[in-house]
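Dear support,

We are seeing what looks like truncated structure output for some complexes. This example has two components. We would appreciate it if you could run it in full and send us the complete token output so we can diff it against ours.
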Amino acid sequence: MNIKRIATSLLVLTLAFAPVFAAGQAESAQEGPVTIKVANYALLESGYEPFWKSVKSGFEEANPDITIEWVTAPYGEIVNQVVNMAGGGNKVDVIFGEIDWVPGLVDTGLAAPIEDILPEAFINDFYPDVLKSFEVDGTPYGIPLYVSPYVLYYNKDLFKQAGLDPNKPPKTYDEMLGYAEKLSKLKDKNGNKVYAFGQTTASVPVSGASLSAMIFNFGGEVLDANGKLSVDNQGFRQAIEMVQLLDEKGYNPQNAKLKDLRNLFALGQLAMYYDQSWGFNGIKSINPDAVNFTASAEPLVGGQGSGQSLLQAHCFILIDNGDARSAALSKFVEYVISEDVLSGYLRDLTPAYPAKKSMASMESVVNNGILKGASPAAGRVKVQTFIPRISDLNLELCALAQAVSVGNEDVSAAIKKFKETAAVKISQ
Amino acid sequence: MKTRTLRRDQRDGLFAFILDIPALLLTIAFILVPIVDSVIKSFQTYGVRNIISGKPGVWNDFANYLYLTKTDAFSMATFHTFSFVLGVVLVQFVLSITLALILNTNLKGARFLRSVMMTPWVVPTVISALIWMWLFQPQYGLVKYLASVFSFSTVTDFAILNNPNTALTGVGIAALWKQIPLMSLLLLAGLQNVPQDINEAAMIDGAGKVRRFLSVTLPYLSPVIKVSISMSIIENFKQFPLFWTMTGGGPNNATTTLAVLSYREAFVSMNLGTGSAITTLWMLMMVLVVFFYNRLFRIQDMG
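Here is the complete output from our reference environment:
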């Protein structure tokens, strides 16, 4: 009996303390071959996996001493994944993400200035205005693979059905409202309602960025050059009034995410909507025939504005992990952001504009039928000042848009509440 | 003899303690330490930069708690949380006891029904949220279609999750679908332990069905009711995946509960200090609610 008890006790104690001895094994320092860790949510999204796999195999073939290790998580979780890993002492080398992630990652101390890792000649090939959009306190963090303003996608078939010229998309919000009146009378082949105009307002930061772009259309601003809240301007108010009007008339699908709008557009239930140019891949993955009815147009001009929009970019955000890994990282970034690698990607998967001057005349961009209509807008983007709590600000913009639409609140009262809440949020 | 018995008791106690060591260590490491750590961080300026650099947080004179008073976000989140818990727990109890009473009869197919009704309970919460999100989808969801059919096309734009006045109810419906099976099963187990002889004696004494239910069944069932409602209160108080997946706290913050608010502060705003402050207050509220609930039930037992 005693032996049984002793044996049981030893077993229990072994089980209890096993994690102590099992944990905390230090990684031995590596010499020679270098592994760089690339955090990339796109590997989990339909359509993108083959491209990134070919990037890995192509890069490793060209650089036999460098291995790429993917770190993946869904879009909404990848930043937390990177932060949690860094908290445990395991930093990735680069994050493939959105421009809006840059200020948050700079604030955490993770993002490194691109000048610390990439060669000057490579950086100088990027459009200065584009790099300016990546600056925090005058230093660029993050390097874009490609860029795009918010473009207006529209369905040429629905335009024809409504008696509109499919080659003459609206140029102003007033024109758009006229078009929308006709388009909203249509039904799809199953008898479902056709929404005339889509502007995302769901509670996700990217919807807030899209609303900022709409405010820029009207000549308004959300933050001043110093990053202070600046919403007492006509353009801001007119844009919010437009969101309310679109809801009142039933033109805009309520509380929709961008992916909801892509879905409706792909199914022929949405006639026009604002999206990042690469949103077309989402449309195409739902309905491959969409390529036959989709066209793009410049962002609309509203109020006293000139139809400016917000620059959006898919970018690499770099992390400094010492000389050996930084050198390998530099090679990886230079490999990916090149005409050879991105040409097919921008033609077949993700219509967008190159950020490098030397890639301006790429055949896949110049002859991109989907982006043709929106091309003049590429040079009409406005830089949004980066602040660390840009995601909070974007979520508050969504709440404001929801307040005046599904919440039926008065525009003045809703803006007043937005000002109070957003000021507290961004001051934290 | 007495000494020997005492030694055996001591040996038994020591042996029992050794057997408890793994559970104690796990409880301390994964429950107590994080709670204490979170409470400490709620008084500090502590962000992701601290995690990455390894620098400790800095005491900030209750700034995290004062921040919560500057907007109505925390008070509204508290209101939404309590409304959700109260609504879901009450409806859940009424529907679960009804279902349990039906299944406790000699209904044909009751055993099959019992197996089938457990399905929602075994579905992961995020999947449940996605299922209901698609059912409630405002353009092509099944619920929208049914609303249109049964209203003879007078209601054509039924979108429960898009309306700030109904969104909390929409999430509540998903929570009920997921949680009713377990509560029904617990209550059914309790019902099957109600002594039939007492019920029969009450019947012979002339008690009707309602009287027997109130005076015999419910008192015997009260320990099970107490536990199952406690579990439901806790489950719904800390409900996060349904809200985050179905509404993200919208529309117009109408479904921003304490769980959503704390997640936003900690992991969207990357401000772990404020997130911890919300979590600390949230935990205190939950402890108080469960404490008063248990006291209420004890008084009822004594009565």
